Amino acid sequence: MLDYDKEAADYDALRGGEARAHEAAQAVLRLIPGRPGRLLDVACGTGIVTRRLAAARPGPRVTGADLTWAMVRRASARLPGAIVRADSRRLPFPSGTFDAVTSIWLLHLLTDPEDVRAVVAECARVLRPGGTYVTTVDKAAAHDVGSDIDAVLAARPRRPAADAPGTVTAHAVRYGLRPAGHGTFRGTGQGRSPRTAIADLNRGWFTLLPPGEPRTEELAARLAALPDQDRRRPDPRFGVRAFRRPADEDSGTSRPG
Questions:
Q1: Residue 46 is part of a domain; what is its CATH number?
Q2: Is 81 exposed, middle or buried (0-12, 13-18, 19+ CB in 10 A)?
Q3: pTM score
Q4: What is the DSSP code (8-state) at residue 234?
Q5: Of 95, 122, 93, 117, which Cα lies nearest the Cα of 107?
Q6: pLDDT tens-digit readout, 229-243
């Protein structure tokens, strides 16, 4: 996993900045009905999306939570007094506190399936009856846009998707939530070029191949032979899923615990 204390300073600029944050916030808001009284943005990072969620509608009280100190400092500058440092697997809030909970670009980072379960369980626990949980899903797959880069990388061994839609849905249902909608949004500025794909490959991203391994070198050489080394291919379209806790709590499933 990336060191987000080191990544914080350049995180927004390298990942689509305000344009991508706008797309993400709009996709989330389309899945949250009405005007939530309290919204929690789990793993809020620099707060670039959280701030847009707070500003989009009059009335909601928005809280952001992140585990990384550098991210918390940056988010706090955007939303003073609204950011807490917290582990998403053990949120420091009473059950039923929030009308909406979001986790954007979090679940795909978790390499332990138990951590994915724990995060979804906690998001469900702090959600009030009638509330909505929205999360991104299948992030890695969104980067495969059918380009010449994807054709070169098709045979690489990949990590199982921690945020696969079926996995996330199964956890949500287990903890009393029901599917309540889905959508996509454009990852503005996130299209890969051959040169950036080589750099990512050599960092060990999006593959199980270690840097320096012969197959890694072979793939890098094939990427280097592609035309237009600095031309970004199409932007990905990220998926989001919404889940709702029934207002009557008669969901027929187990409660978080």
A1: 3.40.50.150
A2: exposed
A3: 0.88
A4: P
A5: 117
A6: 999 999 999 999 999
